[in-house]
Amino acid sequence: MLGVLPAGRQARAACTPDRAGLLGAHVRAACARVQRCRVQVLFEEEVRRLCDTFEQQFHYSVFFAYQRLREQEIRNIMWIAECVAQDQKIRINDGIVFLF
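Request: output the structure for the sequence above.
Response:
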């Protein structure tokens, strides 16, 4: 366990501001992809839970779930519209969270 820590310190020390400028664009792009994946997973999990709400006994949370699913549908439509407007039709399926 102790052998891992010095290697981590060396890796952290290697990320000096000089090297950060060279790798900055690639690092920012990678972080954006990771962040996008996290957001996508959170949206998918939310949709899964909201859909499960309709499986249970009738109560007021069904109305909340319906509203949130409609908001997700609007986000999907906005994503498709932005992809078409930017001529990125290949990426349409990257941002859509399927409701059912």
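DSSP finds three helices and no strands in the chain.
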